[in-house]
Amino acid sequence: MAFTEKAGLPSPLPSPLRALAYKEFSDRLKSRWVAVITVCFTILTLVVLYFGSAASGVVSFRNMGATVASLTSLVVYFIPLLALTLGGGVIADERDRHTLDLYLSAPITPAEFILGKYIGLAVSLALPSLLGFSIPGLIILFKTGVGSFGSYMVFVINSVALGLVFLSISFLTSVMFYERSKVVGFTVLVWLFFTIVYDLGLVGVLIATKDVLTPSALVVMLLLNPVDVYRILNFTTIGEYSVLMGLASVDVPGIIRPSVLWAVTVVWIVVPLLAGYYVFKKRYLS
Amino acid sequence: MLKFVQVTKYYDDVKAADDVSFELTEGEMFGLVGPNGSGKSTLLKIMLGIIKPTAGQILVGGAALKDKDWLNFRRLIGYMPERVSFYDNLTGMATLELFASIKGGSITNIEDVLAQLLSREVLARKVGTYSKGMRQRLNLAQALLNDPSLLVLDEPTSGLDPIGTRLLYDILDGVRKRKKLTVVLSTHMLAEVEEKVSRVGIMKNGVLKATGTLDELYRGLNLPLRLIILVNEDDPQGALLSEILKQEGAVNITYAAGQLTAELPVENKLNMLASILGQKDKFVDFTLRQPSLEEVFFGIH
């Protein structure tokens, strides 16, 4: 029982779920994964914050809007990659170790197994995002006041949510393949698709179907990509619509509201995780 | 304790278990043997509630297990999978703590067993430093964490040296003396099964071809007994004894290096022995051997 007691996670969680979550988190803590990523995010934020305007010949701390805009364009590559690699092998590795059958033969439900793993990895991913972005963000607090810092913290929370979205997608990829190598290959494809290919394709579609695609249709297509949802969410938070316009030269429809974007983000977290759960049950328990 | 009734399992179009029926009685050690792909693993997974049969029922105490019952039934099961390597970054003790939390067991349940399996010093080490045998000992320890009533062992001695193998069976015997522990032993090691189990089930192509004690199995297959007689100078080539054996229905009678070997139908055993003992001045010694599990196994396959 000591394993669960050490977890220190909320007691309403069933003991096996807590034990699984704690194991995943403590693994990343002991391997210094959490510490390394926290330091990387801190350095990245500091560099963007101080040197972000170096191209224009000025080196100094920038305002919140410019910092969030610059960080967003970098984070959309880093966090999905980290999340996908973090969760991609979660099932395949257990299968390779032959520990999967041990869990499946234990008195725990498949939902507890999947959720325990997910929570442990989610905490492992969320902590570096929260600390790594927030600590340098204190500079914004001291230089520009509480208002800007509040908006900056929304960016931090959005970034945590982006990580959770791709962690959910990684769980789905993890249960789709038996071999670790296939999981890795597919993970790279997923990352490329959402971070690069999708937007390129969208631009291509816009050009090819000039004046045919309505703004609403474009918005729907943007909402289909969680990376775009994250971008829009950050830009709407800081009021930098013009940055968004670089991608889509249309009026921003009313549908693009933080509440809608958040709802879409939650859907992007829940649906792949649920799909992963059902694929897991189908693959390993039937 | 646990009864399989006409259990069938399909994986797409492949029939992995075909109309399998057998019963495990409380406290027995049951051996499950069969070549790779014969359906043993499928049967074990059904037994553990990991997969559901396509058709048929699993009964516990006479009542069919429903989906909702499996979670509770698994609390009574200990499982020792084959070749489990655990987590290299956890110590042996942390591994046991993890699985105790998952299974709802406790290390206090296995304190005496643990002392025999792995020393405190070894348990404090990371599993990554363990030999294959140590991992297997840890595997047995975790299987007993929840003080199970049914213990399912999949190739338990794989990777164990003879001392480890002996220890594993001694521990099982010890636990079985304390409580009525039912053990299912799935293995390729036929000699091991023959020595340890009370009953055997032989799988082939998803079908449970035979179940029973070894004695029941070889009688069912009409496998002959093997008689070896060490003849003396009064019957130098074993000619006289050969003639007697032939009259009693023995076959494949051969003589080599002072030994007469013959196969005889089990039903003629007593008559044959009486006839042979009537000529006891013609031989020095004799051995009567019943068919081994290996012979039964190949008799079926």
UniProtKB/TrEMBL annotation, chain A:
Origin superkingdom: Bacteria
One Pfam family linked to the record: ABC2_membrane_2
Keywords: Membrane, Transmembrane, Transmembrane helix
Sequence intervals crossing the membrane: 33-51, 71-92, 113-140, 152-172, 184-209, 260-280
Protein's UniProt name: ABC transporter permease
TrEMBL record, chain B:
Sorted UniProt keywords: ATP-binding, Hydrolase, Nucleotide-binding, Transport
Official protein name in the record: Copper ABC transporter ATP-binding protein
SUPFAM superfamilies, A to Z: P-loop containing nucleoside triphosphate hydrolases
Residue ranges of domain ABC transporter in the record: 2-230
Gene Ontology molecular-function annotations: ATP binding; hydrolase activity
Domain of life: Bacteria
Top enzyme class: hydrolase
PROSITE patterns (UniProt xref): ABC_TRANSPORTER_1 (PS00211), ABC_TRANSPORTER_2 (PS50893)
Enzyme Commission number: 3.6.3.-
